[in-house]
């Protein structure tokens, strides 16, 4: 805690610049899409809000990764009409995406537990 007893704010991390997040961005995206289908802008918003502003995802990192996940059949995309403005591409997790998400989540939890054991 700071001397005035105010809680410290979390540092902002850009997903495509931090070594610790390499390989986890796909799992974060699949986790978000598990909640509901989303278009890219909302997905960026989801990551930012669910990390309390600590994680930010640039469009230059997100959209190529979405295309990669779509090519791997872990997500699927559909063009949807927008209430305002042009149509938007909405992404949804597939059955295979759910399987990979569960596997990645289990691996990540084991890894976090191991690191905790080593540094605690």
Characterization of this structure:
The protein is of the alpha+beta class and 120 residues long. It has one domain (13-115): Winged helix-like DNA-binding domain superfamily/Winged helix DNA-binding domain (Arc Repressor Mutant, subunit A). 50% of the residues lie in helices and 15% in strands. It contains four helices and five strands; from the N terminus they run βαβαβαββα. A hairpin with a 7-residue loop joins β4 (75-80) and β5. The longest helix is centred in the last third of the chain and has 25 residues, at 95-119. It is globular. InterPro entries: Metal_resp_DNA-bind_regulator, Tscrpt_reg_PadR_N, WH-like_DNA-bd_sf, WH_DNA-bd_sf. Pfam families: PadR.
Write out key terms for the chains shown.
single chain, alpha+beta, Arc Repressor Mutant, subunit A, 4 helices, 15% strand
Reported CATH architecture: Orthogonal Bundle
Question: What structural class do the secondary elements suggest?
Answer: alpha+beta
Helix content: 40-55%
Placed side by side, the strands forming the largest sheet appear as 2-5-4
**Number of strand elements:** 5
Query: How many distinct domains?
Result: 1
CATH superfamily: Winged helix-like DNA-binding domain superfamily/Winged helix DNA-binding domain
The CATH topology annotation reads as Arc Repressor Mutant, subunit A
**SSE string, helix = H, strand = E?**
EHEHEHEEH
> What's the shape?
globular
Strand content: 15-25%
> Radius of gyration, rounded?
17 Å
User: Which runs of at least 5 residues are low in confidence (pLDDT < 50)?
Assistant: none
Overall pLDDT score: 86
């Amino acid at each position: 805690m700071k001397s005035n007893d105010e809680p410290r704010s979390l540092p902002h991390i850009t997903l495509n610049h931090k070594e610790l997040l390499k390989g986890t961005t796909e799992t974060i995206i699949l986790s978000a899409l598990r909640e509901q289908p989303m278009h890219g802008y909302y997905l960026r918003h989801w990551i930012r809000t669910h990390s309390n502003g600590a994680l930010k995802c640039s469009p230059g990192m997100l959209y190529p990764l979405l295309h990669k996940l779509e090519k791997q059949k872990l997500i699927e995309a559909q063009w949807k009409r927008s209430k305002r403005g042009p149509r938007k591409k909405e992404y949804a997790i597939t059955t295979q995406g759910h399987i990979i998400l569960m596997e990645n989540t289990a691996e990540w939890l084991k890894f976090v537990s191991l690191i905790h054991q080593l540094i605690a």
